[in-house]
Structure formats: C-alpha cells, structure tokens
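Can you give me the bound-state structure? Components:
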Amino acid sequence: MSCFLTVKNLFKEYEGCRALRGVNFGLEKGDFLSLFGPNGAGKSTLLGIVSTLVSPSSGQIEIKGFDLTEEPEQFKKQLGVISHNSLLYDHMTALENLIFYASLYKVKAPENRAVELLRVVELYPRRHSRVGQFSRGMRQRLSVARALVNDPALLLLDEPYSGLDQYAAAILTEQLAELKSKERTVIMVTHNLDHGLNSATKVGILSAGCLVFMEERDSVDPALFEVEYLRHVQGAVRA
Amino acid sequence: MSGFWLILQKDLHAEFRKPESVISMVFFGFLLLVILNLAIPLGSEISSETGAGILWVAITFSSILGLNRTMSQEKENRCMDGLLLSPVSIEEFFAAKMVVNVVLMLLAECSIVPLFFILYGDSFFQSLPMLVLVVLLANIGFAAIGTLFSAITAGTSRNEALLPLLFYPLVIPLISITVKVTSMIFQGAVIKDYSSWLYVMLAYGCIFTGLGFLLLGHVVRE
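Here's the bound-state model for the whole set.
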C-alpha cells in the first residue's frame, strides 16, 4: 500500500553545502511526525521542500499520489503551513486576510470559512482590526487560522510554539489535537521535547542532513529519546 | 475568482485605501517637472525633442517608486511565500503585479502629463490622443521589466537601491524610442511616420512580459 506522503532519496545542496543527504520516509494518513534536530540539521530545508518553496537538488515527494514536480498545483491544495513568519498582510484586517487566502484556495463561501476560523482562534472580536496592530501571539493564532483555511490534508509546522504565550499555545495544542482526531497528517519541526512528544504518533531526528532516527512514538521512551536527541545536538555543536 | 483577479483586487484595494505609491510618484514627477522648468528662460519655447525628454524623465524616474512598492508589500511577513504556497500559478501572480504597476503608472501620469502641458506650453496639447497610446505602450514595457526586477530585488536587503541599478539599463532602449516617438508626435508627424517605432515598443513589452512569465518562478523560489 502506498503512503499518504512519500519522501524518496531527497537531496539538497546550497552552493556546495549539503543540507539534505538522501532523506527517505513515508507517512500514513493521520500520522503526526515530530521532527527534532540540532540547528542547521536541515529541518527547515526539508519543510521548505515539502511545502514547494524550496526546490530539491534531487529526489521525489508524493502526496496522495500527486508528484511535487509534476503536479505542483494539485500538491499545493493539500498543504497548510505555519512558519516563523505569519505570511499575513499588515495593512489588511484579520477578516480580509483570511478571506483573501480562502479565495486563493477557492474555498466555497470564503467569508463564512474566515468567520468560522476567527471564532476557533478566538480573534472574532478583532476581525476588523488590521494585522499590523496585533501582538506576536495574536498574529501566530491568526497564522494558525490561515494555515487551516483550505482544510489541509497535510500540515507543516515549523517551530509553531516559538513566541507564543501560554494562552496562544493552549489554542494551538487544542487545534493540533483536533487535527489529529480528523486524521490530518502533520509534520512538526520543534526543539521543544514536551510539545513534540505529546502530540506525535511518530518521532524523528534529523542530523547533518540525514534522518538518523525514526520510530513510532509508542515505542519510544521519552527519557531515552532525550538522551539520543542531546547526543546529536552535542555532536553538532562539536562539529 | 481567479488568482489573477484576487491579487489585482488586493493590491489596488490597498493602494486606494492608502495611496502612498501614487502620491509619491505624482509628487516626484511634479518636482522634476518644476525643477527642469526653472532651467528654461521665461517666455521662451522649448523644442519638441527637449519637451519629450523632459516629460519622459519625469515619468521614468517617478515610476520606480511605484515599482518598488508593489513587490515590497509581499516582502512583509514573507507574504510572497503565502502566495507561492497557494495554488495560484506564477503566471497569474506576475500578470497581476504587472497590471497593478501599469495602473499605478497611469494614475500618476494622469497628473504628470497635464502639469507638463501647463508648464511647457499648450502647443503640445494637440498631440494628446497619440501621446496616450505611446504612454500605454511604454508603461507595458516599464511594468514588465520593473515587475520582474522588483521580484528579484524584493528578496534582498537593499532592494530600493538595487532596483534602479537593474531597471534603468534595461529600459534605456525603450526610453530612447519613446522619447523619439513623443518628439515626432509633438512635431505633428502623422502616424505612418512613426508606426514602426510603436511596433518596436509593443515588441519590447511583449518580450519582457514573456521573459517575466518564464523567469519569475526561478527567481522567487530558493
């Protein structure tokens, strides 16, 4: 049986520096992969390639059988991304931003979808405020709503908890739990072991461009995993 | 609604809500026309060649302000990534940005050209209908080159300094043709005298629009 997401032999080189060295993995529908690794391990590059923003040097990615390079438009419809940047327009209101993105994805009744998501992230009372006036936490919550606007089958999260206050982090955790219950596939890059291990069904460690560890979450002892993770972080610091 | 219309609508809405680009383009164009006018002795008439040169100096230098602005708003919070992640094609994105640039330039020219007639003599006014055609063709060329290069420079830290360095060398042939055609129009030449130049201007715009469609995808992706 083919996987929901297949990453085959993925390489990425930046001007002679190898960011990814033959990454292979597959995820089934409903899998939640928490990906750990030291700084510069290639985690964000991997997410960048899966999200179509970065071109791979070689390798293949398929989602629901759609090839990234052959059918990018079909591939993109399945994706939602939360990154370090909000990808939101400061001069537009929260509602306008979500309607704009919903319309880009050809969501039916984009205004209704935008209002629904604003209620979920508890920003409905501020729907007519410009994003430029929002705090970091509010932007991140709106960014969660933006990423969910097309009800993506695959959600990519790059350090989604960074800069969030407790309240915003709780909303994000709640949303991730709901995505899990709806059998959405998620890849989350994080340095936070607690958040990563709590949500995951699979855990992985990327080090020096190689996927050096990939196991089912249930088969992993958190204490031993922490030791393994720190070993790679320290190894990267020494290198 | 297609991605093209959505991006076009978003950008024009933003500009009409806070018309920073058009106001700065008009103000800069006015400033250039007034300063150049100070160099002309009172009561003397300028030649059609000089008039054409002055008009296009004002239009070309003011246009760079708008070209910079349309792409820089995609730079804030990396909104460009948001568009690239969506199923909107890169061609739709380029076409929408190019049309926004043409519209902004036209809006600015609606003020700059009348001021030119006021300051430099209403004898040029009779050539207005053909001047509109020349302005349109020049705008297409400027917008095609400007959109492509503003996308390239939007990813750099010094984009406002870099764009003119890349933009002006490439538009110099277009500017020289445009000035030539405009001076012929000011002299009262009939269209068949300069129609071949109009085709060259159209071809220039088409070539760089085509290049924009082909190259923009490579430019904006890492």
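A couple of observations. Chain B has one domain: 2-221. Helices of chain B lie at 3-17, 20-38, 48-75, 79-85, 90-120, 128-154, 159-186, 191-220.
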